[in-house]
């Protein structure tokens, strides 16, 4: 193997037998410079040269403005460069040998590995197949067990869930649910190792549902009381409304009667004033004068028939009940009234009836 450092210039310039000392901390030093710790033994001589060059040239300043100074500077540069170039050449040569050996090692190892694997793989396949079979069986057992436990848990949660499922239900619905919960069997075959837990959940659920039933019954009693009070209020309201309506009807009738009386009085007063202003002869019935109050009796059966027909007309008039009396007694007509206007109307109508007859 070639030396790392070659060339007469370097050999002449550097000490071929340098003094290398071991320091207290285990490191090496040459000419007062700690050596670079190389991991490749071949580079150790270069590390010594580096220590000598460092001791000689580190911090060196040359008067390059003079011929002698420039010469010394170039000589120093050449010295350091020759070591660096020689080091790089050595690195490439050493590495090339190492890379070639590495490739050879890889190829041989690859071939040997393939042969070994051809022996190992069939055995490994048998082992892995059996391991997989055992793992599959274990996984299936765990799956079956998990499904079994989940099924039992679901049944227990269904019992417990009856509480949330029946919030707000009526008392009748809660009684039905409680009856179902009470008859729910808790047996070893169904709940297995969870039978004690299932029984505790059932007991707690029935207890809570019973409390809910009590609250629901109380609420429904209160609602019935409220409904009864509201019904009583509604009945009283209806009775009061009917009483108010009857009172209003009577008041309206009274107002209407008073209005009619007032209207009749006004009409009578107006007629009186008119009569006083311009006296008119009273109407004549046959050969008799008509005055109010008036009572007329006519014995003619023909006249009676006419007046009876007239009486039917009078019955349909708005003032039919205000002081008019008609009667037919064995062919004789009697007409009585207490108003001159009404009497005049009757007489005129009778006269027209006779004219028609």
Topology, please?
Blueprint: H1 8-13, E1 20-22, E2 28-30, E3 33-34, H2 44-57, H3 67-165, H4 171-183, H5 188-191, H6 195-277, E4 284-285, E5 288-289, E6 294-298, H7 301-315, E7 325-329, E8 332-337, H8 340-356
Antiparallel strand pairs: 1-2, 2-3, 4-5, 6-8, 7-8
Question: What would your notes on this structure say?
Answer:
Mean pLDDT is 76; it is low at 1-13, 19-24, 28-33, 285-294, 298-304, 316-323 and 326-333. The protein has 357 residues and is mainly alpha-helical. It has helices at 8-13, 44-57, 67-165, 171-183, 188-191, 195-277, 301-315, 340-356; strands at 20-22, 28-30, 33-34, 284-285, 288-289, 294-298, 325-329, 332-337. Among the domains are: 8-122, no CATH class; 284-356, Ribosomal Protein S8, Chain: A, domain 1. It is elongated, with a radius of gyration of 71 Å. The chain has eight helices and eight strands; from the N terminus they run αβββαααααβββαββα. It starts with 7 loop residues before the first helix and ends with a helix. The strands form three sheets. The protein has a three-stranded antiparallel β-sheet with strand order 1-2-3, covered by helices on one side. Strands 6-8-7 form a three-stranded antiparallel β-sheet, covered by helices on one side. A two-stranded antiparallel ribbon has the order 4-5. Strand 7 (325-329) and strand 8 form a beta hairpin.
């Amino acid at each position: 193997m070639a030396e790392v450092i070659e060339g007469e210039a370097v050999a002449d310039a550097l000490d071929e037998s340098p003094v290398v000392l071991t320091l207290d901390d285990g490191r090496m030093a040459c000419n007062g410079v700690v050596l670079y710790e190389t991991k490749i033994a071949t580079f150790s001589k270069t590390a010594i040269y580096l220590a000598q060059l460092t001791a000689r040239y580190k911090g060196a300043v040359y008067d390059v403005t003079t011929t002698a100074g420039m010469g010394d500077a170039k000589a120093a540069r050449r010295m350091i460069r020759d070591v660096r170039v020689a080091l790089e050449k050595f690195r490439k040569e050493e590495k090339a040998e190492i890379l070639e050996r590495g490739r050879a090692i890889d190829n041989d190892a690859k071939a040997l590995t393939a042969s070994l694997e051809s022996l190992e793989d069939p055995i490994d396949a048998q082992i892995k197949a059996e391991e997989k079979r055992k793992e599959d069986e274990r996984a299936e057992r765990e799956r079956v067990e998990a499904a079994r436990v989940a099924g039992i848990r679901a049944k227990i949660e269904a019992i417990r869930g009856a509480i949330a499922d029946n919030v707000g239900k009526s008392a009748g619905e809660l009684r039905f649910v409680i009856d179902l919960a009470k008859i729910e069997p808790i047996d070893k075959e169904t709940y297995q190792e969870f039978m004690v837990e299932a029984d505790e959940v059932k007991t707690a659920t029935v207890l809570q549902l019973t409390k809910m039933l009590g609250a629901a019954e109380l609420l429904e009693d209160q609602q019935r009381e409220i409904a009864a009070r509201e019904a009583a209020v509604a009945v009283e309201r209806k009775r009061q409304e009917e009483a108010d309506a009857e009172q209003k009807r009577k008041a309206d009738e009274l107002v209407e009667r008073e209005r009619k009386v007032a209207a009749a009085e006004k009409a009578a007063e107006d007629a009186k004033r008119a009569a006083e202003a311009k006296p008119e002869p009273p109407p004549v019935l046959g050969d008799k004068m008509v005055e109010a109050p008036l009572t007329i009796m006519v014995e003619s059966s023909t006249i009676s028939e006419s007046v009876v027909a007239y009486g039917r007309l009078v019955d349909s008039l708005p003032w039919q009940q205000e002081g008019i009396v008609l009667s037919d007694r064995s062919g004789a007509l009697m007409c009585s009234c207490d108003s001159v206007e009404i009497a005049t109307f009757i007489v005129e109508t009778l006269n027209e009836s006779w004219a028609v007859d």
